[in-house]
C-alpha cells in the first residue's frame, strides 16, 4: 500500500479544546473596606480658611490632626522631660480615652470654632490657649441662631482640644459665664438642651 494512502487513512489524534475559564469571579467588583474614602467637605456656610495647622481630614481626626503654634511648644516641653517612648505613649493614651462619637462631635465643634476665628481674623497664636474674652465672643457669635446647648457642645469641643494638647483653659472665667447666661435668656425654653460632656 502506498505510504501516502497509509498515512491518510490513520486517524489523527486531536487535543480536546480547553474549557473556557470562568472569569466572573475575577471580573466581579471587589468589596472595599472603606480605606481611602474621600474626606467629606464641610457643609456650605461652615468653610474655613486653608491652613497648614488644619489639614483636610474627617471630623473624627481633627482633635489630633488640627494643631497650633502652642502645640509645637507643648511637644518640645513634653520631650524635654520624657523619653520619646514615654511621650508618645502618653499622647496615644490621651486620645484613646475618647470614644469615637466624642471625637467626631468635637471635630464638628472645632470646625465652627475656627470658622469664628477666621471671620474675626484671630491669629493662630491666640486660638490655643484661647483667652477668656475671645471664648466669650465665640459664645456670643451665634446667639439667637442656634440653641445654647449647641453652643455648649462647641465649647466642649474647644475645651477638649485644649485638654488633649495640655493647654490652659479659660472657658470657666466669669466673662464667659455671663455671656452664656445672657444667651440662655434669649433662647426659647423649648430649644434648650442639656450640656453634653465628653464620653470617655
Automatic annotation (TrEMBL):
<dbReference type="InterPro" id="IPR010998">
    <property type="entry name" value="Integrase_recombinase_N"/>
</dbReference>
<feature type="region of interest" description="Disordered">
    <location>
        <begin position="1"/>
        <end position="51"/>
    </location>
</feature>
<protein>
    <submittedName>
        <fullName>Uncharacterized protein</fullName>
    </submittedName>
</protein>
<dbReference type="GO" id="GO:0003677">
    <property type="term" value="F:DNA binding"/>
</dbReference>
<keyword id="KW-0238">DNA-binding</keyword>
Amino acid at each position: 500500500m502506498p505510504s501516502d494512502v497509509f498515512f491518510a487513512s490513520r486517524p489523527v489524534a486531536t487535543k480536546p479544546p480547553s474549557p473556557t475559564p470562568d472569569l466572573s469571579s475575577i471580573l466581579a467588583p471587589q468589596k472595599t473596606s472603606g480605606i481611602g474614602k474621600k474626606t467629606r467637605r464641610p457643609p456650605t456656610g461652615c468653610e474655613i480658611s486653608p491652613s497648614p495647622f488644619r489639614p483636610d481630614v474627617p471630623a473624627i481626626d481633627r482633635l489630633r490632626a488640627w494643631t497650633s503654634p502652642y502645640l509645637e511648644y507643648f511637644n518640645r516641653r513634653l520631650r524635654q522631660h520624657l523619653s520619646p517612648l514615654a511621650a508618645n505613649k502618653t499622647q496615644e493614651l490621651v486620645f484613646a480615652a475618647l470614644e469615637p462619637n466624642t471625637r467626631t462631635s468635637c471635630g464638628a465643634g472645632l470646625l465652627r470654632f475656627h470658622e469664628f476665628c477666621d471671620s474675626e481674623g484671630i491669629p493662630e497664636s491666640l486660638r490655643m490657649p484661647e483667652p477668656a474674652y475671645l471664648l466669650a465672643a465665640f459664645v456670643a457669635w451665634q446667639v439667637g441662631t442656634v440653641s445654647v446647648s449647641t453652643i455648649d457642645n462647641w465649647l466642649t469641643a474647644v475645651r477638649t482640644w485644649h485638654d488633649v494638647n495640655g493647654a490652659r483653659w479659660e472657658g470657666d472665667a466669669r466673662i464667659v459665664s455671663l455671656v452664656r447666661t445672657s444667651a440662655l435668656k434669649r433662647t426659647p425654653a423649648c430649644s434648650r438642651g442639656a450640656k453634653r460632656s465628653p464620653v470617655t
